[in-house]
Q: What sequence folds into this?
């Protein structure tokens, strides 16, 4: 069973204060009682001494100076005189315990008889009954006990004083207890609240909630609260760093897995693409070994071997470019370039190839500026235009346009070719991927141009996407941040 620290503090405080008040009251009351008893004993002892002195003086005044005879004949008168001298009721007893002179009326009591027996042994004794105190002391002469004198002393005033003090202690003790408890409770309650807050803070941290309040106290508890808050912030930062590192590690693992997959796929595609032209070259070489004198075969072989060799050369160049982009961070020579002039330059370099396939060219070029590496920009345009030529229809058309929209330079290149099916549109930018394998080999393509174009564009801060692809052709769009003129 869990007991609140506030309840523990309250119970301990109440018990401690109550014990302190009770012990203090008892000690004071016992001191008063002992002091009253001591005063009474001193007073009665003085009375006893006076009685013995007066007894001896009275004997000396008599002609018959025998103490027993005087006590027997003059005892009652002596008792009356002793009463007047002491101001207290007096009773005289002879050596046998018989009453000789009674200076006051006292009810007989068995307790008094027992006390008298003790006093007859030459000893002083007293008896307290209610408000009365009976003091019995030997009456001696010449070193011999002659009888016993009994003094009566009223304790009424003492007991009244004692009860009054006791009542005051009850009232004052109750008030002091209540006031002390209230003040101490308010003081200790602040500590209890602080400790409860610390416990709540630790509980929040245990549950993973690291936003704990800072305690505003200028003592050790405040320092402890500040330490817990600082520890919470440190744990929060550590957990955040841990989560970030875990996310980075997970991302790195995914990238490594993807890179491993792409690498295996890349090697497989390279092997497959290189095997086809090499197989063709090897076949023509075998035919030349078999028919070395066939002039027509020799001319055909030279044409095909030259074409396949050129295709291998272009594939090696593009593979090397892709490999370099995967491994190295190039320092690009970015500059402010005029888009229309750059597009016209790329079109002029491919005009002969367009004419070879009878392709018409339509342009809508506008003045615009962007920041990019001009050489790499030419490579991107050349690859997209070359792709539009290879996969176009005979006597088809190529349309090139550019415009500025939302602080971006947009370049669109459209063809009237075979189009790209929607289910493979997201794969068209992968290395070695081609929609029509036969058409690619016919024109020397290996599916690397779009992959190179996309990566070069992204390194320049741009993007390439397909905005339309159907039976009427395909439109590629490039977007780059624009620059003011």
A:
């Amino acid at each position: 069973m869990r007991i609140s620290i506030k309840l523990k503090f309250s119970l301990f405080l109440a018990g401690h204060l109550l014990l302190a008040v009770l012990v203090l009251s008892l000690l004071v009351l016992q001191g008063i009682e002992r002091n009253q008893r001591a005063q009474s004993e001193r007073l009665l002892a003085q009375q006893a001494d006076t009685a013995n002195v007066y007894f001896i003086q009275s004997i000396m005044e008599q002609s018959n100076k025998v103490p027993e005879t005087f006590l027997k004949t003059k005892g009652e008168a002596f008792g009356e005189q002793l009463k007047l001298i002491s101001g207290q009721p007096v009773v005289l007893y002879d050596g046998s315990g018989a009453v000789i002179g009674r200076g006051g009326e006292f009810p007989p009591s068995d307790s008094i008889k027992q006390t008298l027996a003790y006093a007859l042994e030459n000893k002083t004794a007293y008896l307290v009954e209610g408000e009365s105190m009976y003091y019995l002391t030997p009456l001696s002469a010449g070193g011999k006990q002659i009888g016993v004198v009994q003094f009566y002393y009223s304790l009424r005033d003492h007991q009244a004083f004692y009860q009054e003090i006791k009542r005051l202690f009850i009232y004052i003790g109750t008030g002091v207890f209540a006031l002390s408890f209230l003040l101490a409770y308010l003081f200790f309650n602040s500590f209890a609240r602080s400790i409860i807050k610390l416990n709540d803070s630790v509980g929040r941290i245990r549950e993973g909630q690291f936003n704990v309040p800072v305690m505003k106290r200028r003592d050790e508890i405040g320092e402890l609260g500040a330490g817990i808050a600082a520890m919470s912030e440190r744990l929060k930062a550590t957990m955040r760093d841990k989560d970030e590192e875990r996310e980075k590690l997970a991302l790195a693992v995914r990238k490594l897995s993807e890179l491993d997959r792409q690498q295996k796929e890349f090697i497989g595609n390279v092997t497959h693409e290189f095997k086809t032209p090499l197989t063709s070259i090897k076949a023509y070489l075998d035919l030349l070994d078999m028919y070395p004198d066939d002039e027509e075969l020799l001319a055909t072989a030279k044409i095909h071997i030259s074409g396949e060799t050129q295709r291998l050369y272009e594939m090696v160049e593009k593979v090397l470019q892709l490999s370099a982009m995967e491994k190295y961070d190039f320092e690009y020579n970015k500059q402010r370039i005029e888009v229309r002039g750059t597009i016209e330059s790329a079109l002029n370099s491919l005009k002969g190839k367009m004419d070879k396939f009878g392709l018409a060219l339509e342009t809508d070029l506008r003045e615009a500026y962007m920041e990019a590496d001009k050489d790499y920009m030419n490579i991107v345009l050349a690859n997209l235009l070359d792709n539009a030529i290879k996969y176009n229809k005979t006597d088809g058309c190529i349309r090139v346009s550019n415009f500025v929209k939302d602080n971006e330079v947009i370049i669109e290149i459209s063809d009237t070719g075979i189009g790209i099916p929607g289910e493979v549109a997201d794969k068209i930018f992968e290395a070695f991927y081609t929609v029509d394998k036969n058409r690619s080999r016919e024109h020397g393509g290996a599916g690397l141009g779009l992959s190179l174009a996309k990566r070069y564009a992204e390194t320049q801060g741009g993007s390439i996407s397909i905005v339309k692809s159907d039976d009427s052709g395909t439109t590629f769009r490039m977007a780059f941040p624009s620059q003011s003129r």
In short: The mean pLDDT is 78. The CA atoms of residues 25 and 346 lie 111 Å apart. The first strand starts at residue 90 and ends at 94. The radius of gyration is 63 Å.
